[in-house]
Specification:
By secondary structure, the protein is of the alpha+beta class. The chain has five helices and nine strands, in the order H-E-E-H-E-H-E-H-E-E-E-E-E-H. It has two domains: about 30 residues; about 170 residues, Glutaredoxin (3-Layer(aba) Sandwich). The strands form two sheets. Strands 1, 2, 3, 4, 5, 6 and 9 form a seven-stranded mixed β-sheet that branches. Strands 7-8 form a two-stranded antiparallel sheet.
Length: about 210
Amino acid sequence: MKKYIVLTILFVLPLVAYLFFASGVNNFAKLPVLKDNITSTSTYSEIEMEEKISIIYFLGSNINDRQGDALNLNQKIYKRFYQFDDFQFVAICPIGSENLANVLKNKLESGTNTNMEKWNFIFLEPDSIIDIFISLSTDVNLDYNYGSPYVYIIDKKLSQRGRNDDNGIKFGYDSRSVADINNFMVDDVKIILAEYRLALKKNGITRKDL
């Protein structure tokens, strides 16, 4: 009897484990596409979203009031994922808020040891900000400062990603809420990064940081 138990442990259990994980890969759940053809920031600036996984943040002109939200995102999302290839943050601000944005960027840099080169700030005319925002699917509006506390995941094909399940559609993630970031956004960013990692592996491409 002991002999058969040992044989089971050595041969059967590894096979079961392999089949389990193989099945998991084949049935990997992708983050749903909520809308295609999001307007790229490259239409109005030198920052491109094509072939990038972008976190879009409409920071607005009241940047001082959004510092705590930005710090939440920096600690929970950017710091955790910035080393992945093709991942970036894009903070969209109205022209005229450059000085306030520089103050915020300095605070973000001083509060962490991470490299901030993938946290991009761009400054646009209000009409351009509105054009990008209305290309998204969302259930909220920009405020009078042309900002929003909600951030959005845009994939490499300029498609908006989010949740669409029994609890409804989740278009964006509330940067004011640590719970929303921890309970939803962290997992969803993991999913989309894993999705692209699996695609690279299937195509025989390897990335050392993935």
